[in-house]
Amino acid sequence: MEFQILVENKTETEGVLAEHGLSIYIDTGTVKILFDAGASDAFAMNADRMKVDLSEVDMAVVSHGHYDHTGGFPLFCRRNHKAPIYIHKNAFRESHGFEDGKIEDEMCGIRWTEEQRNGIAGRMVLTDGPLKITDDIIISGTVPMVEGFEPTEKFYYFSANGAPVFDDMSHEQILVIRAPEGLFVFSGCSHRGVISALMEARRLFPGEKVACLVSGMHLYKASDETRAEVIETLKAEEVQLIMPVHCTGMKAIFELKQAFGDRCLIGMAGEVYRDF
Which of 93, 95, 112, 157 is deepest in the core (most CB within 10 A)? Predict the structure, then answer.
C-alpha cells in the first residue's frame, strides 16, 4: 500500500507545483486509484514529474463537487480512457461560499464547461449511499454527520427561481481502503466534519483499526474550542497516523503535530508515502 500526493497546498519538492487543491494517487497493490484531481492541470504535470502514469489508473473518486478537487478531470479523461469516475449524484450543485454574512458571488462548485461535462458524462458513476468496489475498498456516499461536530463553513446554491438554498454538502464522500496495516481513510475536505468521516469509516469496516487518516479537515475557520475537541477525539479514537492536508489550516496542522508528534505527517505535493 502506498500513495503519492500529486497536488496539495504545500510542497518542498523542486519542480513540483502546489495549488489550492488536492489530488492523491493510491496504489493498493492490486488497484490504482486517483482520489480527486486538484483545481487545474497541475496534478498531471506533477504526475509526469513523479513518474505516475495516469493512463494506468483503474478508478477515480471525487470527494465532493468543488472546483479545487475536480478541475483536472477533463485532462484526466484525455489521458485515461478506462477508469470510471465515482462522483456523488448531488455534486453538481453550483455552490457558493458564505462569508461576512452574505453569499459570495464566485461559484466554488465544479467549473467544467458544458463540453467538458458532456465528455466526462459517460465515465461517471453516480453515488449516493455506500458503494463496495471490492471487499477491501468502499466509497461512502453521503457521510452521515456526527452530532456536536458540525461543519465550520456554510455553502449555498440557487434554485430554479433564484432563491438561495442551503447546501448540506451531502455530496461529500470518503474513500476507505482496508490494508494489512489497517484502514486508510481519504477525505477531501470533510465538509460534514472530520470526526463524521472517521466514524463512517469505522461503521463501514467494524472492528478494524485506523492505520492512517488522510484528510482535509476544514478547521482554518474553527474556534480554538472546536479544534481542541476534534484533536482530543482523534486521540481517543486511537488513529495510528494523521495526515492533515489542503484545507485543514496551518494553525490546526501545528496543533495536530504538537498533539500527535511523529504520528502526524505533514502531507505535501511531490511526496510518496509507503511502508506504514
Answer: 95
- Average pLDDT of span 261-271: 97
User: The domain that contains 206 carries what CATH number?
Assistant: 3.60.15.10
pLDDT (0 to 100) of residue 100 = 86
* Residue 276 in domain: no
Report pLDDT for 151: 77
Q: Total domain count for the chain?
A: 1
State the average pLDDT over residues 171-192: 97
Q: How far is CA 196 from CA 154, 233, 275, in A?
A: 16, 11, 27
Q: What is the dihedral of CA 125, 171, 254, 239, to 10 degrees?
A: -70
Q: Find the length of the chain.
A: 276
**Domain housing 164:** 2-271
25-65 pLDDT per residue, tens: 999 999 999 999 999 999 999 999 999 999 999 999 999 99
Give the mean pLDDT of 129-156: 92
Name the amino acid, one letter, at 44: A
